[in-house]
Amino acid sequence: xCHAPGRDSDxxxxxxxxxxxDQYYVIAIDxxxxxxxxxxxxxxxxxxxxxxxxxxxHYLLEAKLVTWDGLSFSLMxxxxxxxxxxxxxxxxxxxxxxxxxxxxxxxxxxxxxxxxLDGLFACGPVFLRCRDYNWRFVIVLKEGDLPSIYHEFVGLxxxxxxxxxxxxxxxxxxxxxxxxxxxxxxYCDSKGxxxxxxxxxxxxxxxxxxxxxxxxxxxxxxLEINQGNARAVAQNPGRDRWKIxxxxxxxxxxxxLLSISTVTTTxxxxxxxxxxxxxxxxxx
Length: 284
Prior knowledge:
30% of the residues lie in helices and 33% in strands. By secondary structure, it is α+β, with helices and mostly antiparallel strands. It has a domain at 1-111 and 240-284. The chain is globular and about 55 Å long.
């Protein structure tokens, strides 16, 4: 078992070299499914209805300390619940995020944290929570998210040609990366709270078999971006996030499934969400 940083001086020293910008521990937060049923298991079940067939399932929001070389350390989990009729996935995950954030702050009150988050969390309440806790954040930004921020970035980036960085990697295959960024974009959320946000964009072109393919990535952050930190911000809490989603959370899900004996059953057992909570909390 790995000790979390901030509770053990030796483990903290081991993890110091993985800090973002020599200061922040990167904590990725994302959701993962843990068990599913063909009939309602309890009143807290979430639902999914593809092709007219409803599936009932339980979902976790997981916080992991992650490093640039693929290591991960599980910190804590929070159940995503169904508190009302027809809730949206975003409502559920956002509510779970705030519960998880409160526990995380209480457990590690002085740990310098930078959150790595999916675009689902690009919203005013999350920005404000991070500000109140003195956390930093790097959040995936898609074209449909925060449209005012997106369009401001597109317009302002053309006027700031010096805010760019390019690099080229030749081995094991040729990769070209082009970064550009805009700082201090004003944003007013739906509750009238004002925020100053920074946006960084990465175009990554890989050449395989003479066929170059370019992928675009964007993130919104409260970290001020410059020539010295653009690559680190985009790579560690930003670009490396797909490794977390595709490998770490999958491994956690498989282990969690093994710890629950009532997975994928046609008739849900006479048990409550609290029993599922106990089994998962004992696993973490």
